[in-house]
Amino acid sequence: MRVTIVTGSAGLIGSETVKRFARDGARVIGIDNDMRAEFFGQEASTRKTREELVKNIRGYEHHEIDIRNASAIEELFKRHRNHIDAIVHTASQPSHDWAARDPQTDFSVNANGTLNLLEATRKFCPEAPFIFTSTNKVYGDTPNRLPLRELEKRWEIEPGNEYEQGISETMSIDYTQHSLFGASKAAADLLVQEYGRYFEMPTVSFRGGCLTGPAHAGTELHGFLSYLMICAVRDRPYRVFGYKGKQVRDNVHSFDLVEAFAEFVRAPRSGEVYNIGGSRHSNCSMLEAIDLCQQISGKKLNWSYEDTNRIGDHIWWISDVRKFQSHYPNWKFNYGLTEILEEIHAALASSR
Fold first, then answer.
1. Over the chain, what HEC string results?
2. Within 199-285, where are the H helices?
3. Degrees (nearest 5) of the Cα angle 63, 213, 350?
4. pLDDT at 94 over 90
5. Is residue 352 scored above 70 in pLDDT?
6. How far apart are CA 62 and CA 289, in angstroms?
7. Residue 284: its pLDDT value, please?
């Protein structure tokens, strides 16, 4: 039976991947040691999701392995070497604020952990597609140099600019301030590309915008749509950092992202890179997101503003997904911004 290995398998994207590939008939092996609880506290723990996967997904096999443990990773891959059909690597330290507090852990998880997985793949299943969830933070703050105009509730790019439809993979990742998180993810991103090109392995880096969905355990440092709705529903204070609250993000539902993974597995390419996110289909500013959360929840959000923006934060980010769509024309969006927030709200309401 074919095997799909998923790292970060109890997280937002990992758990969606487990369910998707299990539905497609794969035996899924998950790797997740709940470091999210260490990063963000017990409220952000993925343990409940892990327990649900073990209980509800037939044949799911869970391993509480730290991806920094090269020998444990190698042993797992060696055990299943003749059956591994795909590797989906979603495990990471995901916050640029957290990375600045502990750069050693951030880099060892994001860069060295990825290297361990790539080496195990090269040794035991080099023909298996290797999917890496990278980030738009590999571009650093270069997007902040784009010509932007201030509208009532958002920043918007000047009409006619080459990135008007979204930022494409042509943007340079050099000469920019990445944040330490962006640097560790860029190192991993380049490793994934290099293993694809140097060893002719089917690898891909998906450089995501805001990845979200009802299974997201958002915190102040990560997962802004989820955390925004949590604050609205549970009457918690929310802080907006800089740019007048008009900073723009595109948001892609975990279901749509994992469908992109499935398309790549069906027709893999070597050393590929795609910007992936909500694009012009699903995006909002912070102020627009607050309005929508209040409308859906029926509650007024208690929010405050701090003038200092977070280091390396983007003023305006919208992904240009046309390269991926040109390579995989069957892929399409199933969720828009309103549907995403309605699902997050429904999940929070049902868990009270």
1. CCEEEEECCCCHHHHHHHHHHHHCCCEEEEECCCHHHHHHCHHHCCHHHHHHHHHHCCCCEEECCCCCCHHHHHHHHHHCCCCEEEEEECCCCCCHHHHHHCHHHHHHHHHHHHHHHHHHHHHHCCCCCEEEEEEHHHHCCHHHHCCEEECCCCEEECCCCCCCCCECCCCCCCCCCCCHHHHHHHHHHHHHHHHHHHCCCCEEEEEECEEECCCCCCECCECHHHHHHHHHHCCCCEEEECHHHCCEEEEEEHHHHHHHHHHHHHCCCCCEEEEECCHHHCEEEHHHHHHHHHHHHCCCCCEEEECCCCCCCCCECCECCHHHHHHCCCCCCCCCHHHHHHHHHHHHHHCC
2. 224-233, 254-266
3. 95
4. no
5. no
6. 36
7. 97
The three-state secondary structure class of 66 is coil
Which residue(s) pair with 211 in the sheet?
A: 252
The model carries a pTM of 0.95
Q: What is the pLDDT of residue 221?
A: 62
